From TrEMBL:
Name assigned to this protein: DNA 3'-5' helicase
SUPFAM superfamilies: P-loop containing nucleoside triphosphate hydrolases
Family indicated by similarity: Belongs to the helicase family. UvrD subfamily.
Keyword annotations of the record: ATP-binding, DNA-binding, Helicase, Hydrolase, Isomerase, Nucleotide-binding
Length: 729
C-alpha cells in the first residue's frame, strides 16, 4: 500500500495533488505557498511522517521550526494524532528562539563567558516604582528607563517604553546598524542613540557577564554560527532536513539562521503565506520570501490554493480583497466548500450599539458553535468584556491585557472620585491638583501638608492670600466635587473631563510630553462606557475591580466558553464557525499611521493592515460579520475603507440600483471622472468647485479631500460621484 493510501486509512485525510507533491519533494529547496485554510499544517506533518516512515530518516535529523511555543505544541499534538499508532519516533518541534538559545548557551559555556538574561516579566507597578541610586536592576525595561532619563532628563511614559521596545526588536531582527538606525521611524526621540547606549550598557556595565535580551539570542546565535565553522557544520550535519512553518513571519535574522542551517544540501521546506505576514512592525520581512527563487535558483515553488475551511462567500470575498495589495505572490484561493450565508456588514450609529448587537448575536449562536470576536487593538477588549459580562455571556480572552486598569488615567479618575468623598485628603489632592482648573501650586500643596486639616482643603486655601481668579475657581471646584459625590458615575466623569478641566489638562500633557492623545481619550471614553447605567461612584469603582478580575481569569476559560475574544494578530492560525470583526473604522483599521504613511507614498504599512484584515476574514468557517459605527462618544468617525472594498466586491457597482441624478451636470461617461472603484488614498483629484486636492480619507458615505486652496473638506461621496463633481488629475 502506498504512503498516501495508508495515511488516508489511518487519519481520514486524503491529500490533494499539490499537497502530495509537497510531501514527496524532500530533496532540495521548496517554497510552499499556502492560502489560509489550505492545510499547511496538515501537509507539513504528513511530510515529516513521510520522511520518518518512508525515507527512514531519524527524527533527530529533522529540524521542524514553528512560529511560537503555542504552535509548536499544536503541531506536536497534531503529529501525535496522525502518527502515534504508526511510529514511536518523535520529532522535536522548536521555535527559532529556542534553537538560538541552545547555540548561544553552548558557545558561551564553551568560551567560559557567563551571561545573564535580562528580559522577562516585570510588573508595571515595579517599573513605575523605579529604582534609586546608581544600581539599575538588570532588566531590559529598567535599563531603558535609566538611559531614557539620562538622555531626556524626564520620566519615560508607558507608551514610549512600548515604542522603544518595538524599535529595538525591529532593528535587531532586521540586522540594521549605523546610519540605517536613524531611518527607522520611532515616536521616541533619539531612539537610535538610546539603542546604541543600550547595546553599550549590556556589554560593559557588568564586566563579569554578558547581558542578553530575547532578540540577542538571535543575533548572537547568527554571529556564532558564522564565526565558528565547526559549530555550524556540526548543526548542518545534524539537521539533514529543515522545515519551517509560518515563515512569512520570520525576521531577516531568523531567515539567515535557517538558510545557514540548511546548507549545503538545502533540503529546506519553507511553508508560508506572504498574504498572512502580519509582524512586519517587529522585523518580519516578507521580501525574503518573495526573493526565495533568487536565493535558491533550483527551488521548487508550489502553491496550495484550495481552502478547506470557509464557505464559498468568505473564500471568494477574501480572495478578491487581498488583491488590493501589490507586493505579493499572485494566488487564487478557491474552495469546493458549499455556499453559506453572505458576509454581513453593518454600520451602527454609535459604538455602544455595535457592542449591544455583538452581545445579542453571540447569545443567539447555536449550541456547539465556536464564535470569535476579533479586534485590531487590545483597547477594544475592555468595553467589550464589560458589555458581555452585563449580558451574562462567558468568554475566553486570548491575550490578557489588564494594563488598562492600572493606567494613570484610570487612577486619576478614581482619585477625583475619592477626593469627592473627602475633600480634606491632601494625599489625594497631591496626585490630581495639576489636572483640574484650581490653579493649585506645588507650594500650596507643601503648605497643606504642613497644616493640620480639619475642614475642606478648598476653604483652607481660600483663607490664604490667593489671587482672585484662583479664589473663584476654588469655590467652583469645591462645589463640583461636592456635587460629584452623589452623582451617577457617567455624569461625574463628564464633569471631571469638562467643567473641571481634566480633558484640557490631558491635552496639555500630550503637547508637553508627546503622549498619544487618541489613546488617552480612548481610555476616558471607555470609562464612560463602563460607567453607563451605574448608580454610584462606589459602584463604578467596584465594577472596575470586577472587570479586571474577570479579564484576568478569562484565560482559564479556554475550551470551556464557546466565545473567544482576540486581537487579529493572535487569531492567526485559528478558526471559528462565526467571526465578528469589530471596530472597523478608519484610524483603527487601517490605523491613523497606516493612512498617513500611505498618503506620503509609504505603502508597506497599509499593505500590512490589508493582510491583517485578511487574516481576520479567513478565520471564519461559515459566518462572517464586519461591524462598524458612525460615532464614538461625540466624535464622528468613518467606517473602514476596507469595509467599502468588501462591499464593492460583494456588490459590484454595476449591480447597485443607481438612482439617476436629477440633473446630470456633466457627461457621466467621461473617462476622466472619478469612479467609486478608482478611489484611493493619496489620489490627486480636482473638484468642480474646490479645485485640486488629494483624497486623504474615505469610508461609509463620506470622502475627505485635502484641497490646495480650500483646506480639508468632507463631502458626500454619492453626491460627488452621481453629479460628476470629481475628476482624476
Ligand atoms: N486534503 C484535505 N482534505 C480535507 N481537509 C483538509 C485537507 N487538508 C487540510 N484539511 C483541513 O483544512 C483545515 C485547515 O487546515 P490547516 O489548519 O492545516 O490550514 P492552514 O493552511 O494551516 O490554515 P491558516 O494558514 O489559515 O492558519 C483543517 O481542518 C484540516 O483538517
Amino acid at each position: 500500500m502506498d504512503f498516501f493510501t495508508n495515511m488516508e486509512q489511518h487519519t481520514g485525510v486524503k491529500l490533494n495533488d499539490v499537497q502530495k507533491q509537497a510531501v514527496l519533494h524532500t530533496e532540495g529547496p521548496l517554497l510552499l505557498l499556502a492560502s489560509p485554510g489550505s492545510g499547511k499544517t496538515t501537509t507539513l506533518n504528513m511530510k515529516i511522517g513521510y520522511l520518518l516512515l518512508e525515507k527512514k530518516v531519524k527524527p533527530e535529523r529533522i529540524m521542524a521550526i514553528t512560529f511560537s511555543k503555542a504552535s509548536a505544541r499544536d503541531m506536536s499534538e497534531r503529529f501525535d494524532r496522525f502518527f502515534s499508532s504508526l511510529t514511536n519516533e518523535k520529532v522535536h518541534f522548536s521555535t527559532i528562539h529556542s534553537f538560538a538559545f541552545q547555540v548561544v548557551r553552548e558557545t558561551l559555556q564553551k568560551r567560559g563567558e557567563p551571561f545573564q538574561l535580562i528580559e522577562g516579566n516585570v510588573s508595571d507597578e515595579e517599573l513605575k516604582k523605579g529604582f534609586h541610586g546608581p544600581d539599575v536592576p538588570l532588566h531590559k525595561k529598567f535599563i531603558l528607563k535609566r538611559i531614557y532619563e539620562d538622555i531626556h532628563q524626564k520620566q519615560m511614559s508607558e507608551d514610549e517604553m512600548d515604542e522603544l521596545m518595538t524599535y529595538i526588536s525591529f532593528v535587531k531582527n532586521r540586522m540594521l546598524s549605523g546610519k540605517e538606525l536613524e531611518k527607522v521611524s520611532c515616536q521616541v526621540k533619539q531612539a537610535a542613540d538610546m539603542y546604541k547606549e543600550y547595546e553599550r550598557f549590556k556589554k560593559q556595565h557588568v564586566p563579569d557577564r554578558l547581558l542578553l535580551d530575547f532578540d540577542d539570542m538571535l543575533t548572537y546565535a547568527h554571529q556564532f554560527l558564522l564565526e565558528d565553522t565547526e559549530l555550524l557544520s556540526r548543526y548542518q550535519r545534524r539537521f539533514e532536513y529543515v522545515l519551517t512553518d509560518e515563515s512569512q513571519d520570520n525576521s531577516v535574522v531568523q531567515h539567515e539562521i535557517v538558510e545557514l542551517l540548511a546548507r549545503p544540501h538545502n533540503n529546506l521546506c519553507v511553508v508560508a503565506d506572504d498574504d498572512q505576514s502580519i509582524f512586519m512592525w517587529r522585523g518580519s520581512d516578507v521580501t525574503k520570501l518573495l526573493q526565495f527563487e533568487k536565493v535558491y535558483p533550483d527551488a521548487a515553488v508550489m502553491t496550495m490554493s484550495q481552502n478547506y475551511r470557509s464557505s464559498k462567500e468568505i473564500v471568494e470575498a477574501s480572495n478578491q480583497f487581498i488583491k488590493r495589495n501589490k507586493n505579493r505572490y499572485p494566488k487564487q484561493m478557491f474552495t469546493e466548500n458549499p455556499s453559506n450565508a453572505p458576509i454581513q456588514m453593518q454600520t451602527f450609529s454609535n459604538y455602544d450599539q455595535q457592542l449591544t448587537y455583538v452581545a445579542e448575536a453571540v447569545k443567539a449562536a447555536s449550541p456547539g458553535e465556536e464564535t470569535a470576536v476579533l479586534y485590531r487593538n487590545n483597547s477594544s477588549a475592555v468595553p467589550l468584556a464589560d458589555k458581555l459580562d452585563k449580558a451574562g455571556i462567558d468568554f475566553y480572552m486570548k491575550d490578557i491585557d489588564a494594563k488598562f486598569f492600572k493606567h494613570w488615567i484610570v487612577e486619576d479618575i478614581l482619585n477625583f472620585m475619592r477626593f469627592s468623598y473627602n475633600d480634606q485628603r491632601v494625599d489625594i489632592l497631591e496626585r490630581i491638583h495639576t489636572k483640574f482648573n484650581g490653579y493649585i501650586t506645588k507650594k500650596q500643596i507643601a503648605f497643606l501638608k504642613r497644616t493640620h486639616i480639619s475642614t475642606s482643603i478648598f476653604d483652607v486655601l481660600r483663607e490664604e492670600d490667593i489671587p482672585s481668579y484662583q479664589d473663584k475657581n476654588l469655590a467652583q471646584a469645591k462645589k463640583m466635587f461636592h456635587e460629584m459625590n452623589t452623582m451617577e458615575p457617567g455624569k461625574a466623569i463628564r464633569m471631571i473631563r469638562g467643567k473641571l478641566g481634566y480633558d484640557k489638562a490631558v491635552t496639555k500633557m500630550c503637547e508637553n510630553f508627546g503622549f498619544n492623545a487618541e489613546h488617552l481619550f480612548g481610555i476616558l471614553d471607555t470609562l464612560e462606557e463602563i460607567a453607563h447605567g451605574l448608580g454610584s461612584l462606589k459602584g463604578f469603582a467596584d465594577r472596575l475591580k470586577h472587570l479586571e478580575q474577570l479579564i484576568q481569569t478569562s484565560k482559564y476559560n479556554k475550551n470551556k466558553a464557546p466565545l473567544t475574544l482576540t486581537t487579529f494578530h493572535s487569531a492567526k492560525g485559528l478558526e471559528y464557525d462565526n467571526v465578528y470583526m469589530i471596530d472597523l473604522i478608519n484610524g483603527v483599521v487601517p490605523s491613523k499611521d497606516d493612512m498617513e504613511r500611505y498618503r506620503s507614498e509609504d505603502r508597506a504599512p497599509m499593505e500590512e493592515a490589508v493582510r491583517l484584515f485578511y487574516v481576520g476574514m479567513t478565520r471564519a468557517r461559515s459566518h462572517l460579520e464586519l461591524l462598524s459605527y458612525n460615532y464614538k462618544g461625540s466624535e464622528r468617525v468613518t467606517e473602514s475603507i476596507f469595509l467599502m472594498n468588501v462591499r464593492r466586491i460583494i456588490q459590484p457597482e454595476g449591480e447597485k440600483k443607481k438612482k439617476a441624478p436629477v440633473r446630470p451636470a456633466v457627461d457621466l461617461s467621461d473617462e476622466s471622472l472619478l469612479k467609486e472603484g478608482e478611489m484611493e488614498l493619496g489620489l490627486k483629484v480636482s473638484h468642480r468647485k474646490f479645485g485640486a486636492g488629494i483624497i486623504s480619507e474615505y469610508g461609509g458615505d463620506q470622502i475627505g479631500i485635502q484641497f490646495e486652496e480650500h483646506g480639508y473638506k468632507e463631502l458626500l461621496l454619492a453626491f460627488c460621484l452621481e453629479n460628476g463633481l470629481l475628476k482624476k488629475e
